[in-house]
Amino acid sequence: MKGFKDFLMRGNLVEIAVGLIIATAFAAVVTAFTELLTAVISKLFGGPPEIGSITIAEINVGPFINAVIAFIMMAGIVYFGVVKPYQAMRERFVQEDEETTDEQAEILREIRDELRAGRGNA
């Protein structure tokens, strides 16, 4: 049971789970935004009211184009909205940890040197 608990509490698993939950919940927002954006683009260029109705040689390619646009937008939003801020935050915390480790190492060196000096005097 302890091994299972350790597995669940690993940082990577928690990060992946949180990311999956957020991405799933955010997918609806991106889908709605994509539909809005494609409708605006269609109106601006005088095309069909929805990209989903575009056909090439009587083959309906509109849903594929919608899916590609949604994927690109989702990837961009997740990257710039989640990944980049997470990386920046993680780098900041790693630097703080390294600084703490350096300070601790310096204090330990000073203690060691004092102990060595004390042995020579005794």
Automatic annotation (TrEMBL):
Bilayer-crossing regions: 12-41, 61-82
Keyword Membrane in record: yes
GO cellular component entries: membrane
InterPro entries referenced in this protein's UniProt entry, alphabetically: MSC/AndL, MscL_channel
PANTHER family from the UniProt entry: LARGE-CONDUCTANCE MECHANOSENSITIVE CHANNEL (PTHR30266:SF2), MECHANOSENSITIVE CHANNEL MSCL (PTHR30266)
Keyword Nuclease: no
Organism: Janibacter alkaliphilus
Top-level taxon of the source organism: Bacteria
Xref: Pfam families: MscL
Topological relation to the membrane, as annotated: Multi-pass membrane protein
GO molecular function: mechanosensitive monoatomic ion channel activity
Subcellular localization(s) per the UniProt record: Membrane
Keyword annotations from UniProtKB, A to Z: Membrane, Transmembrane, Transmembrane helix
Protein's name according to its UniProt entry: Large conductance mechanosensitive channel
